[in-house]
Amino acid sequence: MRGYFGIGIENGKTELNLGTLWRSAFIFGASFIFTVGQRYKKQSSDTVCAWRHIPLYRYKSIDELNVPYDCPLIGIEIDSRATGIENFTHPQRALYLLGAEDSGLSERAIKRCSKLVVLPGEYCLNVAVAGSVVMYDRHLKVNRGAGFKTKDNQVGVI
Questions:
Q1: What is the pLDDT of residues 31-79, one digit of tens each?
Q2: Model pTM score
Q3: What is the 3-state secondary structure (H, E, C) of 78-127?
Q4: How far apart (Å, rounded) are the C-alpha atoms in residues 150 and 81?
Q5: Is residue 113 scored above 60 in pLDDT?
Q6: Which end is more exposed in the chain, N or C (fewer Cβ atoms within 10 Å of the end residue's Cβ)?
């Protein structure tokens, strides 16, 4: 499969959520996970020891976040500017950024995002659940042959 993706949390509220997200990221084929403003400690929620299989990168602030070349940063946020996930075409390479459940993404993070995606519902989900939904959506669309959008806005097959 071509492309890659990483997923991370800005200012995560609990370490348990990161362990669960890490486990889901491993299962759904993420290349790496990351945190912005939060340190990781091993948690019982990571029952598959995903830390042995995909790396965790830590950044002190959104300004330090190292976004790979030609890889859009996509914020997952309840926001009027966001595209509903059901209508979203995942880029071949992507960095997905989730905010904490009690505060969401910071304005600074939103400004760095090239796109915003919203999940269904009026209220936020648990951050690990929201991340799992995004990764599952990517997995489904890729495996259904929906492909990815290329730079010239054409759908490319994986």
A1: 999 999 865 555 566 666 666 778 888 899 999 999 999 999 999 999 9
A2: 0.84
A3: CCCCCEEHHHCCCECEEEEEEEECCCECCHHHHHHCCEEEECCCCCCCCH
A4: 22
A5: yes
A6: N
CA distances, 109 to each of 94, 98, 112, 114, 155 (Å) = 15, 10, 5, 10, 28
| 107 alpha carbon, distance to own chain's centre | 17
Task: Give the position of tokens 């936020």.
Answer: 124
More confident of the two residues 98 and 44: 98
| pLDDT at res. 158 | 37
For residue 140, give the 3-state DSSP assignment: helix
End-to-end CA distance of the chain: give it in Å, rounded.
6
CATH for 4-156 (1.20.210.10, 3.40.1280.10, 3.30.70.920, 3.40.50.410): 3.40.1280.10
Question: Above 60 in pLDDT, residue 127?
Answer: yes
Q: Per-domain residue ranges for the chain? A: 4-156
